[in-house]
Amino acid sequence: MRTAFPAILLTLCACSAATKVEAVRDGVLAPSLSVAEDLPPADLLATDPVSDTIQVTDAQGRSMLLMRAVRDENGEMVASDVISPVVVAARFRNVAERHGRVTLRFDVRVPSGMVESGWQLRLFPILRVGEESSSLSPVYITGQKYRRAQLRGYERYERFLESIVSDSTLFIRTGQLEIFLRRNMPELWALRTDSSYVSDERFASIYGVTEQQAVQHYTDHFRKSLNRRREARREKVFARYVKAPIPVGLQLDTVIAEASGEMIYTYSHELRTKPGQRKAEIFLKGTLHDEDGELCILPGGEPLVFYISSLNGLVEERERYLLKITSRLVRADGECRLEFSAGSASLDTSLGRNSMEIKRITAALEELLEDSDYAMDSIVVAATCSPEGSWRFNSALSRRRSQAVCDWYSGLRNRDTVSLEFIPRAVPENWDGLWAEVTADTLIPELEKQRVESLRDVRDPDRRERLLAGMSCYRYVREYLYPHLRVVNFRFYRHRRGMIQDTLVTTVPDTVYAAGLRALRDCDYKKAAALLAQYSDINSAVAFCAADMNASAMHVLDNLPISAREEYIRALVHARRGEERKAVEAYCRACELDPTYVHRGNLDPEISGLKKKYETVDIQ
Fold first, then answer.
1. How far apart (Å, rounded) are the C-alpha atoms in residues 603 and 107?
2. pTM, whole model, 2 decimals?
3. Cα separation of 177 and 388, whole Å?
4. How far apart are alpha carbons 299 and 29 in whole angstroms?
5. Same domain membership, residue 385 and residue 251
6. Which tens digits make up the pLDDT trace of 543-575?
7. What distance in Å separates the CA atoms of residue 188 and residue 185, rounded to the nearest whole number?
């Protein structure tokens, strides 16, 4: 009977394990999700997952860590602690979006019946937002016996790696090579302790055999080939010894020595929100494994639901309009650089770039005349001269030049339905153009530029030109800059077709304000604050509050009329500044003006924290 008792006990344990597997497969034993308990902000910052303390290497040479697993006195892996049991049953929570992100905190609960020494529970949280689903980092709960089997596999694989020889010189039969050298090459043997370099070619010329040939002859090729085959089998050996590799990128991988009651792991995930996102769901999938492989797939449970509250929900939907004044008359300007011979008003198309410039202006006129929205009234043509010569002469010359250009384009006024008038104007001397040319020129010395600039104070243009002629830079100015001053300017006067009044006042949507509201809805709060700052309305206050620009938000609120929305935002700002009494008072006023803010206060952590702290302040 004493020999049969262990066998009976083993059979009972096997039946118990099989019963548990069946219970897991049927969903009687199953992990679950629940909303995590609230933690103060300081504790929320310390939720980073903890890594194991034992380092292992997989077949690809990657290093991984095992969390909280230590070796005991027998060299086995045991856990250093056990997860504490917690019970929370909530299935949904309101979470606040701040700066375009929300933190989803939930508990992964594992019943004690699912923790077996020879099992590993692999849990895979799934995040679903709208129609999109994504996998979060897995959570592994590993039994002590299962982890020992894993590490034994790694140890066997490490011993296999140690059997692979990395130093190729170890395959040389050095003893036989030394005998060969001592008997047949005593001169070389005598130099065995000499560090002098002997080339392979000189070695061969002296002894008739190369060093490589000698080494190859005394190399154990069988052992070397065996080592190569062993190295090529690394991945296959890893798969045979390590049947359950320890993965990387886990949220948690902990070894459980024993379980006493229900266990819980608090999971934290930061989600970047999108415009209009109001809900996120967490599902839990999983599998149960033993040393031989997968035992079963865990049936899915009910999801956790997180309702997302954003400050952009406080936006007041409205449009702003701007007054737009439309004038009947519209002016457009163009410039043409035409060259004239000195003292001449004859338009020579072969001179310089005249031909190209005339074609360019002609094309612009054609385009303006074909515009269906505007009708052409008149074109003013102003020709300018360089300062060379007297003012009286240049005045007459500029009039003749402008008339010559008008006559050149006279053919355009005879079009059907077109009554087009070219009006010549004269600008005798283009001194403004000269100042600009001298300033931009890189060859005139700065001192000369200052002397030329001083001529602005000389009122008489003829005297001004004489003083310029006395300067050392005059020759350069006359030859290279004066030709640029002979310019023909076109001024086109048009009117809007069908418009009778001189001006028309209309309202158009304010596109800047609309862009600010769009940025606010898209959670781009810094951009929204920059665009809406100039308006100082309730939406400006919302943008400032969402961007944590609390002083600016309060400045805007102080200049707004009292309303439920204004008081609620004021409560948020006071709460952030630590002014709890003022925050509670503003929240109470908001709820009195609009009872819907009672529920809204539960969505924002600034207000809900105050409601929990001051239990006497419970507005219904």
1. 20
2. 0.51
3. 103
4. 10
5. no
6. 999 888 999 999 999 999 999 999 999 999 999
7. 5
| Angle of CA points 431, 436, 438, to nearest 5° | 95
CATH of the domain at 359: 3.30.1330.60
User: What tens digit of pLDDT does each residue of 410-456 get?
Assistant: 665 445 445 567 888 888 888 888 999 999 998 899 999 999 889 98
Tokens at 375, concatenated: 């009708």
DSSP letters spanning 484-514: GG--EEEEEEEEETT--SSEEEEEEE-HHHH
Q: What are phi and psi of 463, to 5 degrees?
A: -65, -40
Considering only 56-65, 194-203, 266-275, 386-395, which range has the smallest mean pLDDT?
56-65
Q: How far apart, in whole angstroms, are the C-alpha atoms of residue 466 and residue 617? A: 90
Name the DSSP class of 48: P
Which residues are 458's β-sheet partners? Answer: none
Domain with residue 64: its CATH number is 2.60.40.10
Number of C-alpha atoms within 13 angstroms, CB side, residue 455? 22
Burial class (CB within 10 angstroms; exposed 0-12, middle 13-18, buried 19+) of 573: buried
In a domain, 184, yes or no: no
In what helix (H) or strand (E) does residue 476 lie, and over which residues does it extend? helix 474-476
CB distance 507 to 322 below 8 Å: yes
In whole angstroms, what is the distance from residue 259 CA to residue 297 CA?
22
Distances (CA, A) of 387 to 278, 338, 445, 473: 73, 16, 21, 15
Give, in degrees to the nearest 5, the angle at Cα 72 between 69 and 78: 35
User: Distance between CA atoms of 530 and 541, rounded to whole angstroms?
Assistant: 12
